[in-house]
Specification:
Strands 2-3-4 form a 3-stranded antiparallel sheet. Helix content is 33%, strand content 19%. A hairpin with a 5-residue loop joins β3 and β4. The protein is built from 3 helices and 5 strands, in the order ββββααβα. It is of the alpha+beta class.
Length: 104
Amino acid sequence: MKLSQFNVVHEHNGSLLIMNARTGGILSLNPEYAQKFKRIQEGDVRDADDLVAELIRGGILVNEERDELGEIRLQSRAARFANTALSLTIAPTMACNFCLSLLL
């Protein structure tokens, strides 16, 4: 297991707030669990099974072979060519009937 490259960690008064920008998972850790998280960052997962489960659930901890950036690229390309939404670009000109100066 490895920490996601999309984690944002903020420390305040010994507590930690961890957010994963990819999944939107947010975890607030009290000082006790913050220390466990710091040990996990160093590679020590002993006595942290409950925390590891929550980190996995939030996408904060991922499998070692997972290519997160590749997954984002794939999702972006799939969304770009999906036919589930219609995107329009409207480019009015001065001759457009929406022009307010013609109404005055």
